[in-house]
Here is the input.
Amino acid sequence: MWTLLIILLIVWAGLSVLGFAVKGVLWLAIIGIVLFLATVVFGMMRRGKTTRE
Here is the structure.
């Protein structure tokens, strides 16, 4: 599970950097940032859920 989250975070960060580096694909950077933040929130929620049990 954690491996998948780390891989997703790396992919989203890469998309964000690519979106900022290439003119005209700023939308890709925005999508990458949103997905990165969503993955972080999801990971924190899963982490909190497993530590309570």
Remarks:
- DSSP finds two helices and no strands in the chain.
- The two ends are 17 Å apart (CA to CA).
- The CA atoms of residues 9 and 36 lie 6 Å apart.
- The chain has a mean pLDDT of 83.
